[in-house]
Amino acid sequence: MDIAGNVRETGRMPGAGSARERLASTLKAAFAEGLLSEQTLSHRLGLLFGPRLIEPHGVVGDLTLRAQRRPVGFASLRSALQTAGRELARILSRRRSEPAPLVLALDWSGAQEELLIGRGTACDIALSNLTVSRRHARLIFRDGTWTVTDLSSKNGIALNGAQVGRCQLRPGDRLALGLQLLEID
């Protein structure tokens, strides 16, 4: 595979489905706080676990949860400052025009072996971003892993910021097709 060195950080690997579980936890908390009715919760969980491509902002973007009140001690203050520092660094490192990524919910059981991604209507995963080619990339499932291959697209593909032609995917990876960013789940 042609992949640039130091593309992945292997210290912390999220599991498959962790992005959807994180969004589901937010929905459950909003329901518990009375922000969502049972019918709305059911509808949004359907949006979250039904399609393969999920726009997180569309599922939880309008929810504002109350922060839990905890006694403030040195350890919790230090933890809060570290979290705020990491979040600030993430925000500052992100380009201003970079949209929030869509979550690409892949089936890691092997039920489907191949997916075509592009702007074309015949694609398994159709994206509307004009920087995505009609037939941009192919995902192939073999031996428990997904591999992405560029199909000679005009704007190429990048995995975690590094341009690649073909590469293995892992949950938590950020895959860019042109300017369209996808978070692998």
In short:
The chain is α+β, with helices and mostly antiparallel strands. The chain contains 4 helices and 11 strands.
User: How helical, in percent, are the residues?
Assistant: 25-40%
Mean pLDDT rating: 82
- Please tally the β strands and state the result: 11
**Which shape, going by the Cα principal axes?**
globular
Largest sheet: 6 strands, mixed
Separation, N- and C-terminal Cα atoms: 21 Å
**Count of alpha/pi helices:** 4
Order of helices and strands: HHEHHEEEEEEEEEE
Backbone CA Rg? 18 Å
Share of β-strand residues: 15-25%
- Structural class per helix/strand content? alpha+beta
Can you tell me the residue ranges where pLDDT is under 50 for at least 5 consecutive residues? none
Side by side, the strands of the main sheet go: 1-2-11-10-7-8
Structural write-up:
This protein has four helices and eleven strands; from the N terminus they run ααβααββββββββββ. By secondary structure, it is α+β, with helices and mostly antiparallel strands. The longest helix has 20 residues, at 74-93.
